[in-house]
Amino acid sequence: MFSTNIFAQKNAVDILNWQDELNKEYADKSTSPLSDENRVVFKRISFFAKDTAYTVNAIIILSKTTDEIPFATSTNRVITHKEYSTLNLLLKGNNIL
What we know:
By secondary structure, the protein is α+β, with helices and mostly antiparallel strands. It is built from 2 helices and 5 strands. It is 23% helix and 27% strand.
């Protein structure tokens, strides 16, 4: 099963709209992750100042095959994982992952 949340804010208006939606989600009893006690006193989330210079672009490359990759553990065992995709993150045109 694969689950993800993708948020793409491209400009200041998108960022403000997303922040407003998130604040509404937290304030709404049916969608809030907050306890009833915390939600009653919730006013808004304090966000950092917007700076679109730090927009991160993500590129997901799905693997054509799901080969198993061996990994050594600290207990001298070797476990295997399957690679399903590769994620590349770019900040200011530089690969950061």
